[in-house]
């Protein structure tokens, strides 16, 4: 099983999304955890953590992130963007599954 440092998240977010999640980590775990936060390795949806053999610790609440899904027409042009909330878990909120 890979260590948390070796995992790569499906992060595709913007700087604004990064700052939003980083601030939630700062509130929950303090400045040190927030300053070390790397969105490419430290936060993923629960399903992604499970695929790597980890599970979310009991009682943990997700960090909220926002993404936009683009809906395209037949010509490939963007017709509209839909706002979606993504529920992420920080590496301090998971443990190796037994």
The proportion of strand residues reads 25-35%
Helix amount = 25-40%
Tell the overall outline: globular
Structural class: alpha+beta
Largest sheet: 3 strands, antiparallel
Side-by-side strand order of the widest sheet? 1-4-3
Report the strand count. Answer: 5
What are the low-pLDDT stretches, counting only 5+ consecutive residues below 50?
A: none
Give the overall average pLDDT: 87
Alpha-carbon Rg, integer? 15 Å
Order of helices and strands: HHEHEEEE
Quote the distance from N terminus to C terminus. 11 Å
Number of domains: 1
Q: What's the number of helices?
A: 3
What does this structure look like?
The chain is built from 3 helices and 5 strands; from the N terminus they run ααβαββββ. With 98 residues, the protein is of the alpha+beta class. It has one domain. It is globular, with a radius of gyration of 15 Å.
Feature tags:
98 residues; alpha+beta; two-stranded antiparallel ribbon; 5 strands
Short description:
The protein has helices at 15-29, 31-35, 46-51; strands at 43-44, 54-56, 63-72, 78-90, 94-96. By secondary structure, the chain is of the alpha+beta class.
SSE blueprint and pairings:
Elements: H1 15-29, H2 31-35, E1 43-44, H3 46-51, E2 54-56, E3 63-72, E4 78-90, E5 94-96
Antiparallel strand pairs: 1-4, 2-5, 3-4
């Amino acid at each position: 099983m890979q260590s948390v440092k070796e995992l790569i998240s499906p992060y595709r977010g913007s700087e604004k999304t990064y700052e939003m999640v980083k601030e939630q980590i700062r509130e929950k775990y303090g400045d040190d955890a927030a300053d070390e936060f790397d969105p490419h390795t430290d936060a993923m949806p629960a399903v992604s953590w499970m695929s790597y053999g980890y599970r979310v610790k009991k009682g943990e609440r997700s960090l909220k992130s926002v993404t936009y899904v683009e809906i395209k027409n037949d010509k490939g042009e963007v017709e509209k963007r839909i706002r979606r909330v993504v529920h992420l878990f920080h590496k301090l909120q998971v443990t190796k599954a037994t």
